[in-house]
Write a structure and sequence with these properties.
six-stranded parallel β-sheet; about 15% strand; about 55% helix; elongated; binds NADP nicotinamide-adenine-dinucleotide phosphate; three-stranded mixed β-sheet; alpha/beta
Amino acid sequence: VIRRLCIFGVGLIGGSLARALRKAGAVEEIVGCSRRVEHLEEAQRLGVIDRFDTDPASAVAGADMVVVAVPLGAVRAVLEALRPGLAEEAVITDVGSAKGSVVADVRAVFGTMPPNFVPGHPIAGTEQSGVAASFPELFEHRRVILTPVAETAAEALGRVRDMWARTGAEVVEMSVALHDEVLAATSHLPHLLAFGLVDSLARLQEHQEVFRFAAGGFRDFTRIASSDPVMWRDICLANRDAVLEMLDRFTADLAEMRAAIEAGDGQALLECFQRAKRARDEHVVRREE
Ligand code: NAP
């Protein structure tokens, strides 16, 4: 059982983790910290946290588990601010959607990789944000990826594993580099495309007509463009190299599709669509069943 959990950023992810651990009886006390008092008051009113402190160093005092759940662009500043109050034996982890940038931030702030820091990323979320959108079942039957580095202590890793297991998640481990490549392909590129497509259409002169006739397919494809813009700006910049690599690859493939249409090459289009359908039916649809 976690004695005192301190969560930085009690939003969708931090709030859902708090609710899940509370529901599982896996934590005794939960302290919240972020910038805005009204967000923390709301979290307390909803019973997500027991108390809050807007001063990071005093919020973290006496905590045996610390979770950083702020947008990636804020991680370094939050670590700087909490560091003076962090107990040496406290385990600290994060939920950021890119891991290379978090590891670099930790090294920059602590001068080294503390053995008690365990980089992590729950593969669960919705396009909503804020504590009001949080719910305890968010992580059930979902994966949580932990990306320990050479310095990470086995005991700290075990404690973070146990914490996520109590939320109903399946915990897996992989390297920082593999995590960032896989997530660039499966999450970051799709979000970029969804935001980009909706923005392109929104900037058409006749956009009102266009959106009026947008049906189910458009809704499915663009749901994630309702996600938080700040969070996604941070993710694209934080995972720059892997995102650029996927984006270049996709841009080349898109150019091929364009060329096939221009040339009236139905065979090339058909082959592309057939490969895609086969892959989706096999890897995505089957997994949902
Ligand atoms: P969210 O609902 O917007 O919550 C973010 C929280 O961070 C808010 O409580 C906010 O509170 C606080 N915050 C923002 N900037 C801050 C700063 N500069 N200093 C201190 N606190 C700050 O976002 P979320 O969806 O939970 O995402 C949080 C993290 O989880 C991100 O790193 C994201 O990459 C990762 N993640 C998200 C998803 C997803 O689908 N949403 C999935 C997996 C991982 P105040 O406004 O009061 O400061």
